[in-house]
Amino acid sequence: MPDPALALLAFFSLALLCATVAWPGRGIAARLRRIARLSERVRMEDALKQLYKLEYDRLPATAESVAGGVQISRHQAIRLLQKLEERELVAAGPSRFRLTEAGRAQALHVVRTHRLWERFLADRTATPPEDWHGEAETREHLLSAAEADDLAAALGHPVYDPHGDPIPTAGGEMPARAGVPLASLDPGERGLVTHLEDEPREIYRELVGLGLGLMAPVERLEGGAGRVSFRSGDRLYDISSALARNITVEPSAEVADAAWTRTLADVRPDESATVAGISPLCRGPARRRLLDLGVVPGTVVRARMRSAAGDPVAYDIRGALVALRREQAAHIRVSGADGA
């Protein structure tokens, strides 16, 4: 005859297991359904973002190109595109796909959120640059449109992400891509860096290792076959043409020699200079502090006085007297220097 205590224990154990699995809204089954729904939504948003990228780059949107961008099989991509078509987010042609207006709006929301997160990670955290993209890929699916607006406001409504990609406005407006690959400049031509490709991660890590940043002035030099030689400031570079294709520049004959090597640390008391940019090596809270002080391209800064030890130096920035150490001032690239 079975032991009543063991039978009762078995009953309660089975009841507890059933409750754990099937409890409405909180059980394992409910949680698995939520994860499945979230995963499906993430895959759909990833596909919409890839379709928008193909459209923006004027490339054909096929099942194969979507599969490659989202990193799924062709069969999975076809099924995903069919679901998007059923929801009227995508329209299918004979051999290509295109976003509907609703699909484009949703894709732009994901792109906007992604690039805002990258801006946040670059300006407000100590996250390594090569991790910005991957971290933003995870976070881009978590914000509503209103929450993305709040994030944009907290960041001061940035126009570009830290790689130079434009951030769509809340209304879905996106500037056209400008600039040319660095490798396309002729020897002697100059320009300003406007974009550093952030995919794949390994390529971006190499670009970060070069010490280049947005708005850095460059001049193409004579180089060997399959190589691109150039200078930026007082540094000379010689990189592969494949790596150089990931650096976009805006050609400009107005990049003057005076802008190549000077930093705010070189400005003497009673001289003023115009901010050209902040070094990419200055990141996280240190960069955020400079931006909050108004150290942005175009700002005129005047050195007022040195401390008794020569460091720090007091600078007049937008009407406020700010003390910066030499190592901080050396991160601020400037052009021009006029005496009082």
How would you describe this protein?
Helix 2 packs across helix 4. Strand 1 and strand 2 (97-99) form a beta hairpin. The chain is α+β, with helices and mostly antiparallel strands. It is globular and about 90 Å long. It is 42% helix and 20% strand. The chain has helices at 4-22, 28-56, 63-70, 74-86, 101-124, 129-139, 145-154, 201-209, 241-244, 258-261, 284-292, 326-329; strands at residues 90-92, 97-99, 180-181, 190-196, 217-221, 227-232, 235-240, 247-251, 272-278, 300-306, 313-317, 320-324, 332-338. The strands form three sheets. The protein has a six-stranded antiparallel sheet with strand order 3-8-4-5-6-7. It has a five-stranded antiparallel sheet with strand order 12-11-10-9-13. It contains twelve helices and 13 strands.
Q: How would a crystallographer describe the biggest sheet?
A: 6 strands, antiparallel
Q: Compute the number of helices.
A: 12
Strand-residue proportion: 15-25%
Helix and strand content put the structural class at alpha+beta
Pattern of helices and strands? HHHHEEHHHEEHEEEHEHEHEEEHE
How would you summarize what this structure contains?
This protein has 340 residues and is of the alpha+beta class. The protein contains 12 helices and 13 strands.
What labels would you give this structure?
alpha+beta; six-stranded antiparallel sheet
Topology:
Elements: H1 4-22, H2 28-56, H3 63-70, H4 74-86, E1 90-92, E2 97-99, H5 101-124, H6 129-139, H7 145-154, E3 180-181, E4 190-196, H8 201-209, E5 217-221, E6 227-232, E7 235-240, H9 241-244, E8 247-251, H10 258-261, E9 272-278, H11 284-292, E10 300-306, E11 313-317, E12 320-324, H12 326-329, E13 332-338
Helix pairs in contact: 2-3, 2-4, 2-5, 3-4, 5-6, 5-7, 5-11, 6-8
